[in-house]
Structures are given as C-alpha cells and as structure tokens.
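Table S2 (continued). Query chain:
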Amino acid sequence: MTPQERQFRSERARRLKAGRRLRKDQTGDIISSLTEAHNLIIKRMAQSNGEFTQAFLNTRFRELKDILDGVGLEASELASSAHISMADAGLSLVDDPLQASGIRISAVYTSIPETQIVGMRSFLVDKISDITDETAKKIKSQLGLSVIGAQDKTATIDGVSKLLGETLPNRARTIVNTELGRVYATATQERLKQGAEFLPGLGKEWRRSGKVNERPTHIVADGLIVPVEKKFKIGGYELDYPRDPAAPAEATVNCGCDVLPAMEDF
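Corresponding output:
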C-alpha cells in the first residue's frame, strides 16, 4: 500500500466513523424530544382523577393534543437541522479522503442538486408530523372507548401507554434513522458523480453497518466496489447506494450500511 493510499483509507475511515456517530446523535436528539411527549402524556393520564366523563376527556384530549403539537414542531425543527448536517457529512466522506491523499479536485465541484435533498427533508418533516397526528387520533379513540363504557379507566390508560410506545418513539426512530441515513448516502453519491467526471478510477464501495439484525445480503455485499455510475446488485435489488429511495422498503428501511469513495489505483 502506498503512502497516498494509506492516507486516503485512514481519512475515509475517520470520516465514516464521524458520519455514523453524527447520525446516531442526531437521531437520538430527535427521539429524545418525542420521548418527552410520551412521558408527559403518560403522567397526565395517570393524574386523571375521577370518572372519565365526556367533558373531562374533551378537556384532557386538548391538553394531550397541545403536547403532541408542541413536541412535533420541536422534533421537526431538529430533523430539518439534522438533515443539513448529514448532507454536509456525506459530501465530506468523499472530499476529505481525496484531499488527504493529495488529490485536489474540489475546485471543480458544483453544489449538489437541491431539489432532491430538499424533497427528502420535507418528507422527513412530514412523516414526523404524520406520526404525531396519528398518535393524537389513536389517543382520542382510546378516550372514546372509555366514554361509551367499552373499557374502564385503567384499560384506557394502559391503551394510551401501549400506543405511545408503538409510535413515540419506536416507529419514529425507524423513520428518522432511515431518512437521515438516506440523505447522507445521497449526498455522497452526488459528490462521487461529480468527482468521477474529473478523476479516472474513482468508484464506490459498499460498507456493511455491523449492527445487530443486519440483512444477510448486505453483509455479503461488504467491500463490493463498482463504478460510480453503476448500481450495486444486492439481494435481488439494484441500488445506487444504501437506502436508495428507488428501491423497495424491504431493502432500505433501517439499513445502516454506507457507500464510500474507492480508488482503483493510486
């Protein structure tokens, strides 16, 4: 291995580690915000004294809806900021290793296409809003069951607690983790496409996540290198990069893999 390649690989490993840590931290911040709503709603429900009359539950629902709306806005703002950070990290995953190896082509880069990146950010923000709206509807349904006598107070509180656990934060974590990883890989792919126009031998490499319950096909694909313009053929699907939005959900949701820059020859 030449010194140039050693520098390239060292910086690539460093940027990959930093990108994964950023994704984990950003996801954690968003989920922490949603978890606060989960805990506060459970506390409010447990403090509900007396009978669940229609008037009382209407008032209680408005309180819970305000909590969800507030935390949903906060989580959406965090997600929008995290999206930008992940896109920048995806660019650095290509730029920094090349620069560390003495390959300087950053001057020929242009801004990556905003349309796709902005669209992904809007999608994530909308999904968070959908989760809080859906949670509010399910809470209202649980309260309604109590009013008509279909279940008692204890069952209602348990029902609200269960549905919150399913949506806030569990379902939200899957969505946030997937979408932040998606913009990260998308930005990397776009930068690779720009670099390939000026740098012969620049390719892309699939890197497995190493996490628990990893897809077997993604494990097998670890280290696979293809030209930037080609697709990875993995598990019967063709993907430009991990979490490629053109691929079906079963091949992308909660995937922790990454696409890395690869040089054919130094």
